[in-house]
Amino acid sequence: MEKHVSTLQWSEDFALGVGAMDQTHIEFVDLLAEVQQAPDDTLLAKWEALIDHTQVHFDNENRWMQETRFAAGNCHTTHHKAVLDVMRDGLRYGQQGHRNIVRQMAAELTTWFPQHADSMDAALAMHLQRVGYNPETGSIAHPEMLPGELIHGCGGDTCSDQNVETAEADTTEAAANA
Q1: Which contacts of 163-169 are long-range, i.e. CB under 8 A and separated by 24 or more positions?
Q2: Alpha carbons 79 and 171: distance in angstroms, whole number
Q3: What does pTM read for this prediction?
């Protein structure tokens, strides 16, 4: 009997109005769906492709934050690191024959992504738009809108260091329970 896997589908509801960010998110959703639909013989290759894409995706967002006055250790950047670390742990488990862990992590990402995009990424997109940041060139059209001090949170009203620690713990717990 074949198990039905619910995959995340791209929706314009996920669009944040920053073209480079939206395109990367579309690619992430598509690659995640490929992982979820992959047979066992291609699962790890698809998962590795998702990790590689996610590394570039997060590196870009981290660079955009740094160029627009986010502190290097802000919670958004820390969250990126935690997610990538867990994904890489999943790859190691998968390589040891525990493909069910990779499949569980992929299922968890279908829940994680919309929440992350709707909170941390939405706050970043609003910040980038406010300062007139161009991700392709790194130019800032409205430098006077840059914050006077480095942003230490995620840029959103609900972000705190405790929220990041909770998100990291939730992600690690999901991996351990897979």
Answers
A1: 163/75, 164/75, 164/78, 164/79, 164/82, 167/79, 167/82, 168/78, 168/79, 168/82
A2: 10
A3: 0.85
Residue-level pLDDT at 53: 98
At 149-174, the pLDDT tens digits run 998 877 655 555 444 444 444 444 54
Instruction: Give, in degrees to the nearest 5, the angle at Cα 35 between 8 and 89.
Output: 110
| Region 2-20 average pLDDT | 84
CA nearest to 150, candidates 64, 58, 62, 66:
66
Joined tokens for residue 7:
């995959």
Cα separation of 58 and 67, whole Å?
Answer: 14
